[in-house]
Amino acid sequence: MDKKENIDIAFKTTGCTWLSSVSDQVGVPLDQVNFIACQLFGLAAAFWFRLYLSPQRATPEVRHAVAAVLGASSVTFCFGWYAVHIFILVLACYGIMIKASVHNVHRYTMVASIGYLTVCQVSRVFIFDYGILSTDFSGPLMMITQKITSLAFQVYDGMGRKQEELKDDQRRLAVHSKPSLLEYLSYNINFLSVLVGPCSNYKDYEEFIKGQHVQHRLKRVKDSSLQQNGWDKVPEPSPVRTVITKLLVCVCCLLWFFIITRAFPIKYNVDPQFITEASFINRLAYAFVSIQAARPKFYFAWTLADAVHNAAGYGVSGVNERGEVSWDLVSNVRIWEIETATSFKSFIDNWNIQTGLWLKRVCYDRAPFYRTPLTFVLSAIWHGVYPGYYFTFITAIPVTLAARSVRRNFRTYFLSPRQLKICYDVVTWAATQLTICYTVMPFLLLALEPTLKYYRSMYFHVHVISILAMILLPGKPRSFKPENHDLHSNNNVKED
């Protein structure tokens, strides 16, 4: 291997180069190969963690220590010396956790973690000059920022506020004592979630480490339901079937990536010849197909991370309608709900779910005013400093407000008969998917110039329609009473 090839490998990853031959053989960047290798190792380690390091065999301290060491090893393997940024952030914020007043710990932690993340994001832009690696140290840094700030707010709720001041969700998640250094390290850099998340709540993670997770989750259902369906007789359900199902989804996503994704590159949307020669409808169609093709890489990463958690015995949320144990507590994506979403809100609620919950808990539920705009701004800052991120999230503000207004004013007229509701769903599905394509395109293009080029080629039509809908539609819909059908048939229609 000559010097030039070594330089190429160094650019492909900031971490270990042991798997460079695999990268060359499969034609996948080395940073992605390292990521997948670590996640597969994490999957095997998770089964071992559940079976041979179970709470019955090992103390919580041992489980915490092993989870943290494996996590630290994973980020070091993937990112090399850049992993030091992760350790600096975690240790600095633990210092804030210990030293700061419980009345201010959430503020200081938010400023420190978001500030450090932003500094790293800025340096990444200038260092790589938009030649961003598909996986880099900012990914784990983003996940850890979520966990650090979530815990800080939960400590504030548990130790700095009165219980009657808390919402039900805040009361349930409140932490009433500051964690030890080992607990803090384990929660933030454990091998289950350190690479790609998702962010789980500290109390849930502590229950998992102590072996109380499954029992507490199922006990909640038992206490609130008279129908046992036999689930309460199985104290420790096996996750094997769920893990296999999620791994099959990952395989399908990989096949989709190699067969479809590469055939529809995102950057072709701003190809000058394509913009000049293709009609508006053709450009709209290609944007739709290329965005659809880009999603499976996110599905793959999030579903694999979910499977890793489940393999360790973590992720039970309760039971489903059939009385079966549900393993979706830390799920980050609901693929079917995304692909069939008929509203902008429904899409957002099922995409990057744990990040959405984090934004809701640290910003939306606590902001005194302008909750939706502030939440989107925090989301943009958290994602990074590429202009495309800000275009996406700022565009999402009028789109979200307009979608709410349209839904309030028109949905009632199309709930029945059933044929009319089906037509309404088809139209809103198409509108939602095309709007999503328009909104998230800058997120994938990243830079300012291609973003503006794309929006100009699309005549800013979604921006214009959204703003007009906000201006022209009334804030409250007119009352409507259908004359020839029964309203009772629609009482249980779920709001998207």
Describe the structure concisely for a colleague.
The chain has 23 helices and 2 strands.
Main traits of this protein?
mainly alpha, 23 helices, globular, disordered C terminus, 2 strands, 1% strand
Secondary structure layout:
Blueprint: H1 3-12, H2 20-26, H3 30-52, H4 60-79, H5 84-99, H6 105-128, H7 138-159, H8 168-173, H9 181-189, H10 202-210, H11 213-224, H12 240-259, H13 272-277, H14 280-294, H15 296-311, E1 318-319, E2 325-326, H16 335-339, H17 344-350, H18 353-364, H19 371-383, H20 387-410, H21 418-445, H22 448-457, H23 461-472
Antiparallel strand pairs: 1-2
What does this structure look like?
With 496 residues, the chain is mainly α. The protein is 66% helix and 1% strand. The chain has helices at 3-12, 20-26, 30-52, 60-79, 84-99, 105-128, 138-159, 168-173, 181-189, 202-210, 213-224, 240-259, 272-277, 280-294, 296-311, 335-339, 344-350, 353-364, 371-383, 387-410, 418-445, 448-457, 461-472, and strands at 318-319, 325-326. A two-stranded antiparallel sheet has the order 1-2. Helix 4 (60-79) crosses helix 9. The radius of gyration is 24 Å and the shape is globular.
What's the mean pLDDT score?
87
The class by helix and strand makeup works out as: mainly alpha
Number of helices: 23
Report the portion of residues in β strands: under 5%
Give the CA-CA distance, first to last residue: 55 Å
Task: Please summarize the sheet with the most strands.
Answer: 2 strands, antiparallel
> How many strands appear in the DSSP assignment?
2
Question: Helicity level, as a percent range?
Answer: 55-70%
So what's the overall shape?
Answer: globular
| CA-based gyration radius | 24 Å
Order of helices and strands: HHHHHHHHHHHHHHHEEHHHHHHHH
Strand arrangement across the biggest beta sheet: 1-2
Low-confidence stretches: 1-11, 226-234, 479-496
